[in-house]
Amino acid sequence: MSVETARFATTAVHAARNHAPAASRATPVYLTAGFEFEDFDHAADHFGSGDGFGYSRTGNPTVRAVERQLAALEGGADALLLASGQAAVATALLSVAGAGDHIVASEHIYEGSRGLLVDNLARLGIETTFVDDIADPEAWRSALRPSTRALFAESIANARNDVLDVSAIAAVADAAAIPLIVDNTLATPYLLRPLEHGASIVVHSASKFLAGHGSVLGGVVVDDGRFDAAKAGHNAAHLVLPGRGGTPSVAARHGGLARIAYARESVAPRFGATPSPLNAFLVGQGAETLGLRVERQSRNALAVARWLAEHDAVESVDHVGLPSHPDHDTAVRYLHGGYGSVFTVTLRGGLPAAKSFVEGVRVFTHMTHIGDVRSLVLHPGSTSHVLRSAEERERLGIRTGTVRLSIGIEDIDDLIEDLAQVLQPVREVVR
C-alpha cells in the first residue's frame, strides 16, 4: 500500500518519510541557513530552475518533508509551510490579490485575520466585503465585484462554531473563476477536508491542532493543484501573463500548481515568512498523532458541552455537536469523526461570572491559544474581540458572560470536576 492510498492515521505517520540513502526514519532536522553548491553550474542551475536547496528562506529539506505530510493529510497537490498561521493567511491572500482587488470574507473569522483584511491589506489597496449570513450562497454571490479575487472563510468559525457549507460556497467561487480559501484550523483534516468539497486553497495555523503540543508557531497553505489558466484569465493576470523580461508565466511553468508556486517563489520568501526547520520538525512530529488527539478532544468536548448545557449556571452553549446549534445539520453533513473541540459557553452571571470562571479553574489553563493537548479557557469579550463594538460582539454571539473553551485530552472526569467546582459559586448567585 502506498501513502497515497493509505487511510488517515497511516498517512499521518508515513507521509513525511525520508527516502534518501541511509535515511533516518525520523525526519532529519537541517538546521542551517544555506546549502553548499557542488560547483559553479550547480549554483546557476538552482537559481535558474529553483530545484534543490540553496538557502533555507527559499527551501529546506526538513520543511519540505513536512509540507508533503500536510499536503497528504489535506488531500492537496502541494503545501507551503510558513512561520505562523497569520503568515499562512497573508501569503494565501497576497498570492491571489493585489492593489485594486477585492476579497469577500466571512464576518465570522478569527480577529487576527479580520484585522489583516481591514487594517493591513486595505492599506495595500485590497478591499474586503464581509458576509454575515455565510450559509446563504446568494449573500456571497451578491457581494462579488468584477475585481473580486477570492472568497475567504473558516470551516468551523472561531468561536461560535458556525459551519461553512463548503460545497455551496465553492460553487459560487467556481462560477466566478476565483478560489475559495478555507481556514481549516478548527476542523483539521481529520474532521473535514475542504478541498474534497470544492475549495481551492486551505490554510491552517499549524501552531494549533497540527502541532498539538503548544510549543511552536507555524502555518501552512495547501493548494488543490487545479488552477486553470484559461478559466482564470484576468482574475489571475500575475499568474498567466509573462514575467519580467518576457520570462514564461507562472502558469506556463507550473500548470495547475501555479498558485502555490507563486506563493513559494514570490510571496513567502520575499515577505520573510520562513519557518524554522526545528519548528517544522516539531509540527511534523505533532501531525503524526493528529487523528488520535482530535478524536479524543472531540469526544471530550461533546461530553463537556452536554454537561454544561444541563447546568443551571449556564445560559447557552455554542457547540455544533449539540442538536440545539443552528448549524448542527450542516456539521452532520461535513464533519466526520467528531464535531471539534473549540466552542463558547455563556454564563448567566455575566462578566463577574466569567471572571470568576477563568480565575477559578485548576485543570483548564487560562491563555490565548487553541488546539492544545491541554484544555484552555479565554474570555473573548475582553481579549480577542475587545476591538469589536458591543453590537458586533452581540451579533457574533460573544456576550459579557461568554468564555471560549478549547478542550484537551485530559480525563473527562477531571475536566467536569474542574468545571463543577468553578461553576458552584455561579450556581449559588443565580439561585
UniProtKB/TrEMBL annotation:
Protein keywords: Pyridoxal phosphate, Transferase
GO cellular component: cytoplasm
GO biological process, alphabetically ordered: cysteine biosynthetic process from serine; L-homocysteine biosynthetic process; transsulfuration
Enzyme class: lyase
GO molecular function list: cysteine synthase activity; homocysteine desulfhydrase activity; methionine gamma-lyase activity; O-acetylhomoserine aminocarboxypropyltransferase activity; pyridoxal phosphate binding
Source superkingdom: Bacteria
Alphabetical list of InterPro entries matching this protein: Cys/Met-Metab_PyrdxlP-dep_enz, OAc-hSer/O-AcSer_sulfhydrylase, PyrdxlP-dep_Trfase, PyrdxlP-dep_Trfase_major, PyrdxlP-dep_Trfase_small
Swiss-Prot/TrEMBL catalytic activity: L-homocysteine + H2O = 2-oxobutanoate + hydrogen sulfide + NH4(+) + H(+); L-methionine + H2O = methanethiol + 2-oxobutanoate + NH4(+)
Cofactor(s) essential for the protein: pyridoxal 5'-phosphate
E.C. number(s) listed in UniProt: 4.4.1.2
Residues carrying N6-(pyridoxal phosphate)lysine: K208
Family stated for the protein in its record: Belongs to the trans-sulfuration enzymes family.
Name this protein carries in UniProt: homocysteine desulfhydrase
Organism: Microbacterium azadirachtae
